[in-house]
Amino acid sequence: LVGNPELQRRRRLMWLMDQYLKNDVLSIQKSIVDHVEYTIARSRFKFDDFEAYKATANSVRDRLIESWNDNQQFHRDMDSKRVYYLSMEFLMGRSLLNSIFNLGIKEQYAQALNELGYNLEVVVEQERDAALGNGGLGRLAACFLDSLATMNYSAWGYGIRYQYGLFRQTLQDGFQHEQPDYWLNVGNPWEIERVHVTYPISFYGKVEEKWVEGTKTFTWTPDEMVEAVAYDNPIPGYNTGNTINLRLWAAKPSGEFDLQSFNTGDYVNAILSKQRAETISNVLYPDDRTYQGKELRLKQQYFFVSASLQDIMRRFKDHHSTFDNFADKVAVQLNDTHPTIGVPELMRLLVDVEGLQWAKAWDITTKVFSITIHSVVAETLEKWSVELLQTLLPRHLQIIFKINAMFLEEVKNKIGNDYDHLARLSIIEEGEKKSVKMGSLALVASHTVNGVSKLHSELLKERVFKDFYDIFPHKFQNKTNGVTQRRWLAFCNPGLRDMLTKWLGTEAWITNLDLLTGLHQYASDPILQKEWNLVRRHNKARLATYIEAISGVKVSIDAMFDVQVKRIHQYKRQLLNVLSIIHRADCIKNMSPAEKTKVVPRVCIIGGKAAPGYEIAKKIIKLVTTVGEKINNDKDIGNLLKVVFVPDYNVSLAELIIPASDLSQHISTAGNEASGTSNMKFTMNGCLLLATLSGSNIEIQKEIGDENIFVFGAKPEEVDRLRAERRQFQPPQEFHRIIGMIRNGKFGDTEYFQELCQTVDGGNDFYLLGNDFSSYLEAQAAVDEAYVDRERWTRMSIMNTAGSGNFSIDRTTREYAENIWGIKPCQPTS
Ligand code: T68
């Protein structure tokens, strides 16, 4: 040792850092105060709640880094197979409470802050939501990360570090306005910038073919190059040292590329054009589900996918000298078609850069990728024009053509020369404007494709990908979505959490949600029922306070809180909800005082964002607010009905709203919602569902029992016929009358609402509002009837929570791990 300087240095390092940070209250306080002074550079004698948040977050981050480092080292040593989850969106929400809860140090932090004169609840509210996603698809990705970490899988998420997340919604005179969400301008204490983990990403240019020693080689000379810089976000599992990584890429001007332009004399313009690079990771596209074909979007997709694959390959090469067992160590999950350009990119990296034979590279590629589809109709799947690909990614287009040619050759052997059939299977859509069907490309290259609920997976086989199913039946699986009970129950509903733990006699349900079935036996127990309602009333009171603060509307917590919160889309039918609210108001106004005493008071809460270019969705928002204004100020209606639009619905608001809801609505046209995941969160929290036969509603109904859910409307198998016959269909009188009220200006803005009313005119009513209206009103009446019987309602509520075990994302994750990714849980033994 004496003579070995390296060993001496290591020993000193061990001595300097011989133990982990301690988690007693005093040590935590020291960490926080140190960060106030040295990281935030404020005085420890004077810092506000926001600074307290930043210092607290930094102290938690220190602890996360310790387990992150250990975990990465462990998996490096084990050389475990890892899943990489590639997603354009990660809708993470806040991290502070999640992290300290998962690390098991919430109580210590609460006390530590308290003794310093701060309140944990106030401090956590200082954090801005990380809204790098639109809705279900992005939030599912976030739930997966929590579950993968908790269940000790080796996993990384890869995505884009958008400077601007999903826009913030404000309402002016009831109209939606969009404000940029520049979430990074107050700093992001959770991320670790890796200035040295960068990859070049190329665009445009040309490809040259050359014969080298009897093989054709391809050299792509790009015209533009940017650099992808890694930002790591540690994701802690619950009650485990397994902290996994979410690596997000930011675009920076490339240091090496185009040095000559500086010598041309136009120094300032050369720098300005370099800055353009940053626009690639600037902004998240708001989803309106209609495919738009914007060049920047394709650039974003290629940018993050190429960086991720280069990073994955670099990591693999640290341990392996050939790519022979790449697929034994790497699984790549594509979150919808958005990262599909990864298929030709992996081929390019293996063939052009690493020098593998095409056949070998294709064999590897098809063993690595699998894809989850989240949409219900083929029209929403991405198609990139051949012209755009030719310009932006010329080499990739060549590769796609070759994949397609080989694929069609292969299927010809199976189906013969049926050209119509071959054209449907082809990855290239012919026609005036040729395009590449990304769904088809992904399917050809993936070993597995899955839908996100049982019904949806069937629809994929029968409709969206029928032609593929016929030739590749073995590729198709179902993986019904789930949600993490850590965020969506344990820490957003602490009252219910404690009660569950008390009645079940264990907190093991936090990692094994099936244990909730243990509640069945107590569903009618008057003591549990009493406690249950107390917790629910407390949650409702919190939401009532919030509603009054933002809208000035006073709501009674004795009223039923009837909630529909989700992105505004025609297929989700918020309009159907509004129509029934108008109907309800109208009925109340026509009642005698005696009849009014029998009405169940309701607070109808609606929230959600409309994509900025989605005019009809924006009109729906305006209608909700105008109708609300009228009803809330109507003396004849009083407290019997209130209507509130909650602006800027996001993850944090969901955490407040879901535990406080009595009834929640999931009323898309049958079969039109791929799965839905908020329905699972509501069910878990003891909220009853008013639902159609769509997506996972059907599976929830099966788990909790028909008597504990309100289901209405057409059946999925009837929808095609009803649509075809909609011109002849006569909607009920009430439906016409209510539409007439809006049309004739009862709520003002007569002109503005005409187009909205037209969408439900007989021939136009694609989402079948008219067809389902009567059955919806009947279901609403059944809801009122059940609510009056408090004992019955509470029992139903308990049965919802008790039956929600199957909708834990841990179940979903396990199914992916076992049936798609081939990975096993793995953690250090000591
Ligand atoms: C949702 N999809 C499904 N898409 O609608 C929902 N799309 O039923 C399902 O539960 C959820 O995925 C999770 O599987 C989306 O959220 C998008 O956000 C989106 C964004 C851009 C382009 C297309």
TrEMBL record:
<comment type="function">
    <text>Allosteric enzyme that catalyzes the rate-limiting step in glycogen catabolism, the phosphorolytic cleavage of glycogen to produce glucose-1-phosphate, and plays a central role in maintaining cellular and organismal glucose homeostasis.</text>
</comment>
<protein>
    <recommendedName>
        <fullName>Alpha-1,4 glucan phosphorylase</fullName>
        <ecNumber>2.4.1.1</ecNumber>
    </recommendedName>
</protein>
<keyword id="KW-0663">Pyridoxal phosphate</keyword>
<keyword id="KW-0328">Glycosyltransferase</keyword>
<keyword id="KW-0808">Transferase</keyword>
<comment type="similarity">
    <text>Belongs to the glycogen phosphorylase family.</text>
</comment>
<keyword id="KW-0119">Carbohydrate metabolism</keyword>
